[in-house]
Structure formats: C-alpha cells, structure tokens
Write a sequence for this structure.
C-alpha cells in the first residue's frame, strides 16, 4: 500500500474519491448531541488517552499480580493512587480475603524415552498440589477427553500420568468457544484423573498458537478425589510428547526402552487466605446518586504473566472511562463507579465481596459492564438482563451511532466473570467484546506483555465503554 | 478471563447459556447452499490453511523484495513454483520492466547542536537521490506543511535542510485517512523543498506509533525541481530533533552553539530498468472461461522490509483463494485468476503491464479484487463500479451471510493501487478491508515481520475473499 503520487493523477483522483466517500458517515440516530458526544469520547481517547501509559506502569511495576502476592498489593496501592489523581468524588477500597497459592521453585517436566531424556517447557496449573518429594516418574497415557479417562478406567489409568491432549477446535470463528470447548481438560481433568488413580496430569495449553509457551490457568479438585499434581505443556511440547507416545506404540514389543515416561516436579504450596482489596472510584450522579453504573476489570493476573491484556487492559480502560467523563465535563445523572476487582483468576472473591456489600447496602445498579476480553479493537458488546433482551434494545437504539467506530455486534451475554453474578440480582450486565483472534495466543503466559497491546485499540475500547455508559445514563436502556 | 469451574455452578450455567446464544446464527439469505459454502471456506482455511506457512517461506527466504532486487527475482520464482503446486489449469509469468533504485550503504543522519552530535535512526526515502560526496551539513528548518515551505520562501529555505514534522492526525478512526492526510510531506515535500533551494529533506515517519523505527516509502521529484536527498526519521527521533530546534530558538542570542544542524548522508543510486514479472495462476471457468474474476496482491516490498503484511499477506491470501476452490472441489463458472503484481511500491509497472495486456487481448473482467491492506482480521470490502454502487448491491445481497464471520462493512472504494486502474475500464474492482489499527505501526519498516501476523486472521481474510468471489461467480454482482 502506498500514498498517492504526483505521477499518478488517475489513481490519486480515485483515492481522493474513495476517502471522500469514506468520510461521509450517516448517523441514523435523531440526536446530533449523541453523535457529537461519541465523537468527543473517541477523539479525546485517541488523541490524549492515558490508558496505555497507565498500562505501561501497571505491567512494568507489578507483573504477576496473583492473589496473595506482593505485586497484587502494589497494584492495589497504585490503582488507588491513580484513581485518586482523576479528580473523582470518592476513591476507596473494599477488603477481600483471597486464596493464596504459590508456584514455588520452577516446575520441571522431563520426557524420558528410548532416545533419552528431554526437558519440556511447562507451567504448573494454578491451584495444583505439589508433587511428592522428589517428583513423580510414571508412564504417560494420552487421552482426548474426560470421557476417555472414564472409559479407560482404573485399570489403565492407575499409577500413570494422564496427558489431556485434545486441541482447541480451529473451526469456530470466535476462539472463546474453542477455549471453553477444550477447557474441561484443564479445569476438571486432573481431578478426574486422580479419581481413577493417576499420579499426575499434563494438559495441552489452551491456545490455537503453535509455539513453546505454556499457558497456565486454574484447575479445581473435587473434594472427594485424590489431588494430583498437574501442569500445562505448550502446544509444540504436547505434539512432541504425543509423537513419542505414538512412536512407542508402534515399536511396542515389550522392550523396556519403548515406554515413554515423564518425570514431573511441582513445588507449589497453598497458604492461608490473604488480605487484598477491590479498588473503587466514583463520580457522583447529579440526579440519581443512589443508582449506579458500574464499569470494571480485574487487578489480579496469573503469577507468571505481566497481565497486559488479562486484565491490565480492563483496569486502565475502566479508569479511562471516568477520566473521559471528567475531562469532557460530562456530569453523569447516575453515579458512575469504576470497580477494579481482585482475585478474578482463582476465586472470584472480589466479585463475591462486592455483591455481598451491594446487597447489604441495597444498592441499585442500572448497568454493570466489564472489560475482561483483552485490549483489542472493540467490535461490540454483550448484554444480559432478566428483563428481556437488552442487547436487542441497545442495537435498535444505538447501532447506527456506533457504526462509524467499527462497533457492530450487540450479542446476548452475561457480562463477564466479575459482573455475571449481578445478573441474577436483576442488574443489566454487559461486557466489551473486542476482536478475539489474538487473545489466546498469550493468555495466561509470560508473553501477555505490553508489546501485544496497540494503544489505539486500547483507547478505542475505553471510548466505546464511555459511549455506551453515557447513552445508558442519558437515555436509559 | 477464565473458564468455568466446578465450584461456580451459577456462572457455569450463565456461561453455557451465553455460548448457546452465540452459536445460534441467523442467516437471512435464502440460500442454504451459500451459507454452507461460506462455512466450508472458513473451516478449511482455519483448520488447514496454507497461507501462513507460505508467508513464513516468502518473508524468511525473500525479505526486502524491492523492484530490481535479487530477492524479488527469488520471490517470483518461488511464487510460480508455489502456484504450480496448487493443481491449477495454468501458471505463467508476464514480463515487466521495473524501476531499479538501490539504497546502497546505510544512510546516516547526525544531529549537531550545542550539546554535541547525536545520531538519529533514519531511512532514505525510496527514490531519493544520493547526497553529494561527503554528505550535506546544514541548518534545519522545521515545517508542518508544504504550504509552510511556500510561505517561508527561498530566503528562509535556501541552503537548509527542511524537516517536515506534521504528525499523523490521531483522531480518524481509520488510520489510513491520517496516513493519506500526512503523506504529502513524504511524497511531494522533498521536491518542493528543493524548488526553494533546500539542500536536503527530513520527514517524520508516517505512523501513529511512538518508537524509534523509521518508515520509508516513495518520494517523487517534479521534473523541473532540483532533486535533493531525503530521509524519514522515526517519530521519537523527530520529536528529539523538534525539541532541540525549540530549545535552540529559546536560546537564540546569536551565539554559534545554539544552531541545530544535521549531517545527512545518503548513498542511493538509480540503475537502468530491470526485468521482473507478474506471476499468474488460473482455474479455468466451466461456463464462461473468457470472463475473469481476478484476485491479487503484490510481490514486491520495500528493500528494508520483510514485507509480511505489505504485502506478503496479500500474495499468500490470493494463492489460498485458489487452493480453497480446488480443495473443496468448487469449479468456478468464470475463470478465477490469481495475479501477483510486481512493482507496486515504486512504480505500479506490474499493474500497468497487466492492464496493457488485458486491453490488447480484449479480456473481460467480472471483478478484480485486491488484498493489500494487511493480513489482519477482515472487516469487509470496498467495492467500486462505473455501473452504480456495487458496495450497496453486495451489502443488500450478502451482508447477512458474512455477518457470522465478523464482516459487516461494505464501502465504496477503488479496490487498491494495483486494480484501481481497471475501474476506468469498466471493471468492478474491490479490496479486502481488514482491521487497520496496527497496519501503520510497521508499514515500510524492518519490523513488518512474520510475528506481526496472526495465522487465523490471515486465513480468515483468505476465506472472506474466497466467499465473495464464489458469490459473485455463482450469483453475479
């Protein structure tokens, strides 16, 4: 692609015609004020947005903000100070007791087969118990589903390391569907394997990317099952292990050397619950101060991750929404509340605490919208309500207003993990829906870093949130 | 963001409800076959697409494919072989004489001011003449527009290096508009500065990114103006130079040391036109073999650039379109022709040669669609026709079919630089319109590399092109 050139008058003319056409934006909405305000949000965010600078500070100073960690505590202090700099009406904390799991010394996964020993990159799953002193060394059995474990049964599973290796389906257009479709292997696989006598579990990383970065994430043990150590392998390492197992099967003639074993060492530990906080900032509503519009993300991240997209982006976008209202001199009729939740990744205690407090105070929420799907180019919103289809109402009222900003999808949803619980309490919930093709490339890894975030995309997301919130505040949903 | 957990039955239920809702896709189109075929294109591209593997080969083996270079020749051979592997009906070359400019030894820009000498990263603009033997050393005058140069006039400009430093406007949602809005500084600024007696020109890189990577690109000299050497500075270097000039102005008391000068050395040369080729592959139409649907991108890239997005992505997507038809067993009614143009970046000779040949043979083209806006998530198409509004016809017929794939924008346009010339000949032209927020972060730089391309986004673009082409082939536009 190249700009027009002096030597190409025809193409220049055509290019100009094309630009002119592109600049004519038809807004079907009857309110020129609304179109103007949305334009102001976007121009301010693109030209002078602070979200990316805040994100740089957050992920540089406080990477690995897992619940119970020093860096989560640092991020909480930083968030309170940063909200404090935005000239809000109120900034405060909410005490939350959070689970405290630590990875400990680096985990180790060694593939041992006929050709020798080969170390594989790996990350213990969040919440995994440690391996016994000295690690476990056992034969590996590959499965593609939890049903496979049940079918194989105790006889085939006991004493082995179960290797869950069903890839994320490439076909869904939204990678989130593929993620959820494969996620049971990580969230429930190790516990099920333990039930059938396995001594360890390995899970294929939940990503479409083919690389050597392992993706961690939470695993949960059912109370009655034996707890076994569990780690995630990068997709390339999973392929190598699978190939070694297939080769071993082909050459299985009873020889000792053909067996593929893995030595697995995990040094994690569970500690007592730790103190942490939700951090909250408010602009008081001019007409309905007791009715709240909530926008939020989560401060915690996995221990190994800078947490730029998950969910530093949501934290700084939520802050930016309040800054946009302030700097444009827009006074919301309802109280606009930024909630930076704690402990989303492995407990949702921040959300639970918030819900308890709002019930206790009998607070009314008009809308609770979350941004926890990455700081990518915004495409739309998911909305959910117990009173009919909020996404259809929003689309009918405002789709044309949002179209110039590339925001075209209004889908039914439940907001996100932190605000989802408010739906059952009658609150309309929502979530920003950005492009998601790249999200799982670095989700829960060491490479969820600042360089993966484009400042304009991040700022467009903040402007989209501010726009929807302003429309709900002024027009209702 | 996290997957559902055993411990969170409420949220799990809500998440499942959300997924179920997301999977219900309403297709308004009356043709279930069309919906099925689009789904097949997308599934095949996502699950077994070859475009990313081809791109890896192209940018690894043949980076810096500028016209006249050995690597363009290598890329042409590779493209012919690769098309040859796709089981097409015909693969051939079209001879093109291309301009041959070489950068020569690395350029150098040194800022010399009171505090000392400071090297600035820089890239000579494409087509720039070399500096005189030993380089030029001159005072710098900063301007924000071509008009500034005219206003300052010969008295203020002569003997100086003119520094064009108007940033790309952050406000447009489409960065392409800001690129074009600032592009005259690069394409015509140096020639104008030469007219007023300047001895050199520096231009701020055409990007919203704030970093230290310079962006090259073509500059053109008007025939009657003196030709002066010209280089692009990274945005951060431009800011440093501007700050030094501002500081110098503040301390300007006639002292020698306060002046800011720049030493500029460019070692480029122009060589005689070189042989190159368009590379073409065809699937012969079953009903209308003499009517052509063209899909294409350009093989050349800037000399310093791997050219992954610009335009390796377009090359491999165009190939993939033909592969998708073949592998799905779809026999187009019209001849489907993949054209890999040469010399888009600095001459458009490939396009001109193609047009001459098609006129000579009196070939009829039903549609000529280009992909030269990066291998990002596809959002829609631009379409142009001398017979009414093709984009509105396409939207009316097929918008609902494309919506499940996130493709929602059908805008008026002129295709792109390579197919634009066909519009005046009565051909309906088009271009793939992907997300563009990241495009100018690495456009025409050393960092337009494979790691900036997401395989799924690239493959979704190929599927979108195949889908539109199949619809035009079977239903007409």
């Amino acid at each position: 692609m190249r700009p027009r050139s002096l030597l190409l008058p025809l193409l220049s003319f055509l290019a100009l015609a094309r630009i002119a056409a592109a600049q004519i934006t038809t807004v079907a909405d009857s309110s020129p004020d609304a179109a103007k305000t949305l334009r102001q949000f976007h121009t301010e965010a693109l030209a002078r947005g602070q979200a990316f600078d805040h994100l740089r500070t957050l992920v540089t100073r406080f990477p690995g903000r897992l619940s119970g960690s020093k860096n989560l505590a640092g991020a909480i202090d930083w968030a309170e100070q940063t909200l404090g700099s935005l000239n809000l009406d109120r900034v405060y904390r909410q005490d939350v007791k959070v689970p405290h799991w630590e990875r400990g010394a680096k985990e180790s996964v060694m593939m041992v087969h006929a050709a020798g020993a080969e170390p594989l990159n790996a990350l213990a799953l969040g919440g995994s118990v440690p391996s016994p002193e000295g690690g476990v060394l056992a034969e590996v059995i590959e499965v593609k589903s939890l049903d496979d474990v049940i079918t194989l049964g105790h006889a085939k599973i006991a004493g082995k390391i179960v290797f869950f290796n069903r890839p994320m389906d490439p076909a869904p257009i939204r990678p989130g569907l593929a993620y959820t479709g494969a996620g049971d292997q990580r969230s429930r696989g190790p516990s099920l394997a333990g039930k059938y006598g396995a001594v360890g579990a390995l899970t294929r990383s939940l990503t479409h990317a083919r690389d050597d970065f392992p993706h961690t994430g939470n695993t949960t043990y059912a109370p009655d099952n034996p707890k076994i150590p569990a780690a995630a392998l990068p997709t390339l390492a999973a392929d190598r292990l699978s190939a070694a197992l297939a080769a071993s099967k082909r050459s299985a003639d009873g020889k000792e050397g053909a067996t593929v074993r893995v030595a697995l060492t995990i040094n994690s530990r569970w500690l007592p619950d730790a103190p942490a906080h939700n951090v909250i900032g408010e602009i008081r509503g001019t007409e309905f101060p007791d009715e709240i519009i909530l926008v939020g993300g989560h401060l915690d991240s996995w221990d190994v991750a800078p947490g730029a997209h998950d969910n530093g982006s949501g934290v700084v976008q939520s802050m930016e929404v309040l800054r946009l209202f302030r700097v444009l001199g827009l006074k919301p009729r309802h109280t606009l509340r930024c909630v930076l939740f704690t402990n989303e990744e492995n407990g949702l205690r921040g959300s639970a605490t918030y819900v308890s407090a709002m019930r206790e105070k009998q607070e009314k929420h008009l809308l609770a919208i979350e941004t926890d799907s990455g700081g990518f180019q915004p495409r739309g919103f998911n909305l959910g309500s117990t009173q009919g289809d909020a996404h259809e109402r929003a689309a009918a009222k405002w789709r044309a207003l949002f179209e110039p900003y590339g925001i075209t999808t209004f889908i039914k949803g439940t907001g996100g993990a932190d605000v989802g619980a408010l739906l059952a309490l009658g609150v309309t919930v929502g979530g920003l829906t950005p492009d998601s093709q790249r999200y799982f490339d670095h989700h829960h890894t060491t490479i969820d870093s600042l360089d993966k975030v484009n400042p304009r995309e991040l700022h467009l997301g903040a402007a989209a949130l501010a726009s929807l919130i302003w429309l709900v505040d002024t027009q209702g949903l």
Chain A has a mean pLDDT of 93.
